[in-house]
Amino acid sequence: MQFDNASAPSLNLESTPSALAVFNQAVEDFADQCAFQNFGFQLTYRELSNQANKVAAWLQKDQGVQAGDRFAVMLPNTLQYPVFALALMRIGAVLVNVNPLYTPRELTHQLNDSGAVGIIVLANMAETVEACGSDIKLNTVVVTELADIMPQPKRLLLNLAVKYLKKMVPAYRLPGHARLVDILARNDDQFEMASPGHDDIIALQYTGGTTGLSKGAVLTHRNVLANMTQIDQVFDGKIQPGMVAIAPLPLYHVFAFVGHMMWLFKCGAKSVLVTNPRDMPTFMGILEKNPCDIFIGLNTLFVGLLKQPRFRALDFSRLFLTVSGGMALSGSTAEEWEQLTDCPICEGYGLTETSPVVCVNPLEGIQLGTIGLPLADTHCKVLDEQGQDLPIGAIGELAVRGPQVMRGYWQQDQATADVMTEDGYFKTGDMATELDDGYFKIVDRKKDMILVSGFNVYPNEVEDVLASHPKVTEAAVVGVPDEAQGESVKAYLVVDTEVSVDELDEWCRERLTAYKIPRAFEFRDELPKTNVGKVLRRALR
Q1: In whole angstroms, what is the distance from residue 463 CA to residue 474 CA?
Q2: Which of 75, 266, 371, 516 is the S-S candidate for 359 at Cβ 3.0 to 4.6 Å?
Q3: Same topology for domains 35-220 and 449-540, yes or no?
């Protein structure tokens, strides 16, 4: 069975030449409004554009960066990120998003795989670039300090505090590197504006590497433009210029990149960048000073916030849209969030390879526990092991076709062929089922499924039950070898109050079929997570 979302209006992308055109129009429309805020300093749309033009001129004329060249951006959520991303877009270069927490091995792979000609890196992580040594070949290295976009004296004071008081900038040697402050101090902002088409590449977005070395998903202007337009249709007319959005998820991750950097920018909203959401005292201060209309997050973040007394004391009267993605949203977390904020969480679903959004719950029809309906012009179906369509209610691998699906993996034709069907569907690797009303529900990752005596056990279901226990903060479930059953279920837990295994076992027995109940429990202070907060089941395995 295939759901074609026939009720959703079709997209009209031909009237807009590129995502860059959308950006440039937004700068014109919202020139004097705040686009991004960080550490209390605001950058208007016009100021962002002017700064980006200086960078674009320097890259194009001084460094010889041309349209189609790949350029790496290794930055957390700072004002430098949107400035540099827009500069690259305006000269037609391809943005290569890099996780600032990468090790030298991971960074070397991504720079070499993408063929990046240059990189901008926060000084705090510059030693990682240095450690790559002769294994990488870069023409251009730009180093920036945390407050480089801000005016004096705030720039000097914040940079000195980070470097000398907090000692967060390890020593590094990068001969010949440029400093962003020097580039921005130049008067030259003249360059040749690119005019990309729909099929030109806007970004290489690397997958998390859950099955080995990460692969670069080739995202085109059509992909990103389509996804912005599709999201717009879901929230038609509800996002008004000047609305405040909190941005704790990293912009280098596809979810926040398209959500904040592209879609909300297009709408004229202000994104408040949270540089380190794990620093809860600072995060709470940001939230107290910035009552928000929009909050984009994921389950792990919501759980952490709900544990903070200062968060529970906030004024949520303006909050009307909370969006969750990136990982499964637990029912207990969703219910507690709505009870506290009076704003239901709108869960969606997407992947790096789909730019990223595939499905989302419409605000007027949120169904907790589902990923919602496919976006406009997006076709979803559920496949069996042989690649055949399955009927409504059956569980199989979710496959997606739509204008937001990537062109393929960068220079990996076989890897691309492995995930695409003959009729143009991308096989997500997620186990899903279609409901009678056209909504879809993710059951689990295909590779995470546990086989107990021939029965399929989906970790998300068991984790949701465990997480609903009042003493459990976080739960992760994996399969472990079992001589009698093939595999058995093991649970890893973070708790805030001591709880016995017998109590947990009884809790599960009341809510799960016998073969789904964990045979072993292990308590930890924290669970291993990716940079965006997804629990790493493979690390636990």
Answers
A1: 8
A2: 371
A3: no
For residues 274 and 249, what is the distance between their CA atoms, to the nearest angstrom? 8
Strand partners, 380: 3, 400
Host H or E run for residue 72:
strand 70-74
Domain 449-540 architecture: 2-Layer Sandwich (3.30)
Q: Any residues with CB less than 8 A from the CB of 304 and at least 6 apart, and which?
A: 280
| Strands across the sheet containing 426-434 | 2-3, 379-383, 396-401, 426-434, 440-445
How far apart CA 487 and CA 482 sit, in angstroms, is 5
CATH code for the part of the protein at 35-220: 3.40.50.980
Q: How many CB atoms lie within 10 A of CB 175?
A: 6
Q: Are strands 244-247 and 270-273 parallel, antiparallel or unpaired?
A: parallel
239-286 tens-digit pLDDT: 999 999 999 999 999 999 999 999 999 999 999 999 999 999 999 999
User: What is the full DSSP assignment across 360-424?
Assistant: E--GGG--TTS-BEEPTT-EEEEE-TTS-B--TT--EEEEEESTTS-SEETT-HHHHHHHB-TTS
Integer Cα distance of 462 and 204 in angstroms: 35
Q: What is the pLDDT of residue 541?
A: 86
Q: What is the model's pLDDT at position 8?
A: 56
Characterize 461-489 residue by residue with b for buried, 16 or more Cβ atoms within 10 angstroms of its Cβ, and e for exposed.
Answer: bbbbbbbbbeebbbbbbbbeebeebebbb
Tokens coding 183: 């580039």
Residue 73, strand partner residues: 97, 120
Give helix 501-509 / helix 459-467 axis angle, nearest 10°: 120
Nearest partner of 37 among 201, 265, 224, judged by Cα: 265
pTM score, whole prediction: 0.90
